[in-house]
Specification:
Elements: E1 22-25, E2 30-33, E3 36-37, H1 38-44, H2 47-56, H3 62-73, H4 80-86, H5 95-106, H6 118-143, H7 157-166, H8 172-185, H9 192-201, H10 207-219, H11 226-234, H12 240-252, H13 271-287, H14 291-307, H15 313-323, H16 331-352
Antiparallel strand pairs: 1-2, 2-3
């Protein structure tokens, strides 16, 4: 009989990997990305700076950042076969399933699919980063019987992504805020989807397979679907008072309220949420309608008072995306698109210093003796 092992439900507090990529510093309340504070990065840098930081391990000089932009622009287009494949999906296909299908299909177009070298994996990451916004936008359009929209080479990475999502070019403020949201979603240590990607890649599976698994993980409403749920909840009411009443009714019925609480940020607000809260305030002021901001702020106070829970990133990212004119079903795919760079960094790290994940269990079943 084996000795009893310690069991931690949900792997709570279990260290699963060594990494140089990121850390949630709960003592100082910081999200550290390659040694930098993610919140500070979101205030001073752009998404492509973080892309270079995660793949090349340094913040880029201006010419390096421009080079990243040019590399990504060359990868904006999708193979015709991938776009045609979306036409075969039924209309009820969830956007995350369209995304998963598109990423999986890209593997067939990779002539170096079995090469796990750092150089090829890094090139593969840039290729995926360039194409995922196109997959997100056009899988949704095609599934809904609309014509695909072609990427605009004249726009920056974030502006082109915004254009493909909405069909319009962003204003300077819209581009800035959308880009900031991508930075804030880019990397977050070891959430379920990242762990999934590392587990898959530990079998020496390719980057496409690891990201396909990560999409499936992120689709779950306990991980990535919360931003959509938050927006649908906000749209159920028309006033601040009605929103407060809605939350109180849900609490009375012991219903789960999405957008609050986090396995890591248990006693304070997710610092990324603070950045999106400020972005929401800016958008509301520019558009001359502060209702969503007032509703969210009131809801924040109700949840702190009644449950001691604080907003996570999804709570404020949802109304920001709504104010930007982005369709609600695309909120979680956008989350994944932003996180693609973090996932790629983790898969590359896993491939470079690999050990197959093979945990054990604490058996609670019966033990029978077979009789002759």
């Amino acid at each position: 009989m084996e000795s009893k092992v310690e069991y931690s439900p949900g792997l709570e507090g279990v260290v699963a990997a060594e990494t140089e990529i990121s850390l949630l510093d709960t003592v100082q309340g910081k999200i550290v990305i390659q040694g930098y504070d993610l919140i500070e990065l979101s205030q001073t840098k752009e998404y492509l700076d973080v892309v270079h930081l995660l793949l090349e391990k340094t913040l880029p000089m201006n010419d390096e950042k421009k080079a990243v932009q040019e590399v990504l622009k060359k990868e904006y287009e999708l193979p015709r076969g991938v776009l045609d494949g979306f036409k075969l999906l039924p209309e009820q296909t969830h956007p995350m399933d369209g995304l998963r299908t598109g990423i999986s299909a890209l593997a067939g177009y990779d002539n170096q699919l079995e090469d796990r070298s750092l150089t090829v994996n890094r090139d593969r990451a840039y290729k995926l980063l360039g194409k995922v916004p196109n997959i997100v936008s056009n899988s949704y359009r095609i599934i809904n019987k609309n014509e695909p929209v072609a990427p605009l080479q004249s726009l920056s990475y974030s502006a082109n992504f915004f254009y493909m999502l909405t069909g319009k070019k962003p204003t300077s403020l819209e581009e800035q805020i959308f880009d900031k949201s991508l930075v804030l979603y880019s990397e977050h240590e070891m959430p379920n989807s990242t762990f999934t990607a590392r587990v898959i890649s530990s079998t020496n599976a390719d980057l496409y397979g690891a990201l396909t698994g990560a999409v499936s993980s992120l689709k779950g409403n306990l991980h990535g679907g919360a931003n959509e749920a938050v927006m649908y909840m906000l749209l159920q009411v028309e006033t601040v008072e009605q929103f407060e009443e809605l939350l109180e009714r849900k609490l009375f019925k012991k219903e789960r309220i999405m957008g609050f609480g986090h396995r890591v940020y248990m006693k304070k607000m997710d610092p990324r949420a603070l950045m999106m809260k400020e972005a929401l305030k800016q958008l509301c002021e520019v558009k001359g309608n502060n209702l969503l901001y007032q509703m969210c702020e009131a809801g924040e106070k109700v949840m702190e008072r009644e449950k001691g829970l604080y907003p996570n990133l999804d709570y404020y990212a949802a109304p920001v995306y709504w104010m930007l004119g982005i369709p609600i079903p695309l909120y979680t795919p956008i989350f994944f698109s932003a996180r693609t760079i973090g996932l790629c960094a983790h898969v590359i790290e896993q491939h470079n210093n690999n050990r197959l994940f093979r945990p054990r269990v604490l058996y609670t079943g019966k033990q029978h003796v077979c009789n002759d």
